Amino acid sequence: MKKVFVALSGGVDSAVSAHILKKDGWDVTGVFIRVWQPDFLPCSQDEEERAAMRVAAHLGIPFKTLDLSKEYKEEVVDVMISEYKKGRTPNPDVLCNESIKFGGFLDYALNEGAEKIATGHHAQVIEKKLVRGADASKDQAYFLWKLTEKELSHTLMPIGHMSKDEVRKYAEENNLPSAYKPDSQGLCFIGHVDMKTFLLNFIETSNGDVLNESGEVVGTHDGSELVTLGQRGGFTITKKEEMGNVHYVVGKDISKNTITVSENFNNEENLTSSLTLTDSNIENGKYVCEIRYHGEKIECEVQDDVVTLSKPVLMAPGQSLVAYERDVCVGGGIVT
To answer: Is 300 known to be catalytic?
Structure first.
């Protein structure tokens, strides 16, 4: 019997994944992954682990706990904080998938004799290629762009062909303990947390000026590291003539601790149709690109890590650009 280790979080997606695999004849082991938790936030890991144990007991499968606290702190949290300090906007879910679920967890599973790992991602692995999930509103392929054939060849995503409603219905019909458990949202593994609040525990910031596009001071902010390009609000407008209007961040200067805002998000002077990538795994060619999770699909051409978009965009350095051929994710890169 083929052995698979399922990343069991206690949520409905991973529970249904484990149930499907057991029904299909796999030798299933549930694994709860423990990660570093900040001491200034309520810790829900013990509760989540108990929920995962209840799922494993219900399914009659072995249950293990894998502690990746050190790897999570060093390879996800510390990297994320370092990027924000530089004025960039990283995607922690991309880091988490690469280092934890398809890094430490995959290595552990293979060393323990498993042929595959499985996760509850809303995405699909078809012929060792990463494909969008069937439920467009829940599709998570964007966060998985760093996966290569090496990882995908050892990965199953059993619910990728299902809608979220179908997952819930399946869990209810099979009386899974997590059938009615709310979806988890927020920072990978940690859950819902205000990013500004989180970062203020690690980054020493100071108040600075908010400028309009003419360079005139129109307000104040709590720290340029805490805002990202395209962000609406998150600063204080003090100039009377500008108060009450909606402003967007269109520029920032970490060295001067200033941010620039505009009422016109789509001002061509703030946009670009050419982006340079680092850490890219996209081959040269023409694709459809997304510059943020569930963002607009934009035609693009990639040539030696330079991406030319069919329309100009406002893109924050550090964010992920992900390329697709139809529904197949062909890779991505980090915007410089």
So the answer is: no
